[in-house]
């Protein structure tokens, strides 16, 4: 628990006291920056900027709000600056050797989207009494993607009010605006978000989730297209940022996967978790059987089916403690 003496020492420039005062909030601030920006890398940068600004401004902290609220004010405004910048991650060209993809349903615009490791979500203690979203829903890829399409100020208000539970007066002070402006922005943001569809996913680590995961791993590692199709919802969806191609509907997803399997690409999957859902490090087997890190697959589950699969490139593997290659050959299925 942060004490008044620690705050006083931090204000006087004591580095150890500053760390003691701010460290309890680092994890939840990182998640907040991720929600604001949709990118793990950008969130890392925004968090570092936040902590630097807090250190430089600590002497002027007047105590009119809590340290937590003060830090959220800094972090939110750093993220708003980042969202206005033009240097966001750019789209990549299709780069899978030997595979000619079918015509996509559309080209996605949120190409900077990245996954968030579940291991960093433990006990962040973010939600306040006015929060409307469950923590799992508020970190899902569907939610993160949806808020990226909102204007920056609406995103900030939605997250601070509906996810974190700050009062309207607090949010107005954080954003240097009025309560009426906060209320109006929140109303527009809520109206713009798509309504959830489909069945609720099974509970994490439940027998129901384990059963779906086991079937998916078997289907994907054995390149069994029929078994994979049986797992998909009718409106199943595939995305692969930073490649903008998106495929909607079970038939088109099946066509895309058939091209992958038909090219002779075979994978081993290493389980992990991202955004509250099952995920896998994907390792492409070479002729010797050694697996080379090809990317990370994240599933979105709906009832007892898979409603979406998002494939991220192999640069994200280290965030999940996954190696760039599997050093020992694994037997083919």
From TrEMBL:
<feature type="domain" description="RNA polymerase sigma factor 70 region 4 type 2">
    <location>
        <begin position="142"/>
        <end position="193"/>
    </location>
</feature>
<keyword id="KW-0805">Transcription regulation</keyword>
<feature type="domain" description="RNA polymerase sigma-70 region 2">
    <location>
        <begin position="24"/>
        <end position="88"/>
    </location>
</feature>
<dbReference type="InterPro" id="IPR039425">
    <property type="entry name" value="RNA_pol_sigma-70-like"/>
</dbReference>
<comment type="similarity">
    <text>Belongs to the sigma-70 factor family. ECF subfamily.</text>
</comment>
<dbReference type="InterPro" id="IPR014305">
    <property type="entry name" value="RNA_pol_sigma-G_actinobac"/>
</dbReference>
<keyword id="KW-0804">Transcription</keyword>
<protein>
    <submittedName>
        <fullName>Sigma-70 family RNA polymerase sigma factor</fullName>
    </submittedName>
</protein>
<dbReference type="InterPro" id="IPR014284">
    <property type="entry name" value="RNA_pol_sigma-70_dom"/>
</dbReference>
<dbReference type="Pfam" id="PF08281">
    <property type="entry name" value="Sigma70_r4_2"/>
</dbReference>
<keyword id="KW-0731">Sigma factor</keyword>
<keyword id="KW-0238">DNA-binding</keyword>
<dbReference type="InterPro" id="IPR013324">
    <property type="entry name" value="RNA_pol_sigma_r3/r4-like"/>
</dbReference>
<dbReference type="InterPro" id="IPR007627">
    <property type="entry name" value="RNA_pol_sigma70_r2"/>
</dbReference>
<dbReference type="InterPro" id="IPR013325">
    <property type="entry name" value="RNA_pol_sigma_r2"/>
</dbReference>
<dbReference type="Pfam" id="PF04542">
    <property type="entry name" value="Sigma70_r2"/>
</dbReference>
<dbReference type="InterPro" id="IPR036388">
    <property type="entry name" value="WH-like_DNA-bd_sf"/>
</dbReference>
<dbReference type="InterPro" id="IPR013249">
    <property type="entry name" value="RNA_pol_sigma70_r4_t2"/>
</dbReference>
<comment type="subunit">
    <text>Interacts transiently with the RNA polymerase catalytic core formed by RpoA, RpoB, RpoC and RpoZ (2 alpha, 1 beta, 1 beta' and 1 omega subunit) to form the RNA polymerase holoenzyme that can initiate transcription.</text>
</comment>
<dbReference type="InterPro" id="IPR032710">
    <property type="entry name" value="NTF2-like_dom_sf"/>
</dbReference>
